Amino acid sequence: MFDIERWEEIFDTIRKNKLRTFLTGVSVASGIFILVILLALGQGMQNGISKEFEQDASNRVSVWSGVTSVEYKGLNPGRFIQMKNEDFDFIKTKFENDLEYKSSVNRIWSGLASYKKENGSYRIEGVYPDYQFIENASMTAGRFLNIEDHRNIEKVAVIGYRVQQDLFKKENPIGKIVKLSGINFKVVGVYTDPGGEREENRVFIPLSTSQRVYNGSNVIRNMGFTMQPQNTFEETLAQSKVFSEELEKILKERHTVAPQDTSAINVFNTLTEVKRFFDLITMIKLFFWVVGICTIIAGVVGVSNIMLIIVKERTREIGIRKAIGAQPWSIIAMILHEAIFVTAIAGFTGLLFGAGLLELVGPNIEVDYIVNPSVNFNVALTTVFILIFAGALAGFFPARRAAKIKPIVALRDE
């Protein structure tokens, strides 16, 4: 039941001790504020990591070759390992049931592309049609390469959005002829990529065409695969790990590379990296929770100390109340009421300040690995209610002490 006299007592106590109450409230509010900001940073880091891995298919396995670093079977270190079409065909056939998308790549670095008076240097990549899905590319105009383009060694090209802006400006590029290192190609599509301009600074052509017209013979620079999705992330991750290990082992055997050589054959498993990063994020979030909760505990301890001081200051008043018949529970309720009020007001203030700051600033924050830091409001609100409960607990012990004071002892208090 609402007791106006009880509220008048609380506000009268607060007015008499403005600075003390303010500092106590600040310690509690800052605890919630810091926790909200830390949780938001943790979520922002998770958003940033997720965005980084959105650039390619989430279950991608890539392999590229390098230079041998150790002697093996009479072969000196320093050999460059050159993968070929036969390597890709062997892998594709052996793991046919496990693979979803697959493509080898013949890359031409810094290829010159020109259209009318415009020209620029871009990366030209000969690929299979599946590469669109491995790269997570989306078509904005026209189509991607198809298997007939590859079989017929067609001189067709799919350009990135950045290339379109540079060469064609506002002109529709579909059906136009663009020169790639002096050879005419017909533009059949324009794509965008979640990776942004860096990934849209490329031109895709059929793999067979790139090998034929740019003297690539049967040479490939790297290979990309995605695995068939499984029922759970753990199953997909396990399958991906097995495939990565087998892929590396097979290529090392085919090219006479020492099993312990770590530089000749390089395999990058996106799922493994995703798990590693998210495990790290989980640990960081846990650390943030510990720091935030410790800060809140410090505030709650402050509330408890203030309640002890209040009980000490009001000992004589409490004695008079008990002498005229006040029950112990009413003394406890009086102290708890004030502790809960101060904790609740300070807690909600810290929550609103933290949420408001994130609402204003969060969407504009986009640095490396931190994107749009935000906090689950329900989690933050639950934390405030837990804080209020902790504040009540902090006030209970001083309140119980006050309720146990004998009236005659309290009346003698100076």
From TrEMBL:
Alphabetically ordered keywords of this record: Cell membrane, Membrane, Transmembrane, Transmembrane helix
Keyword Cell membrane: yes
Protein family: Belongs to the ABC-4 integral membrane protein family.
Localization: Cell membrane
All copies of domain ABC3 transporter permease C-terminal, residue ranges: 290-407
Gene Ontology CC annotations of this record: plasma membrane
Protein name, entry field: Putative ABC transport system permease protein
Transmembrane feature ranges: 21-41, 286-311, 331-357, 377-397
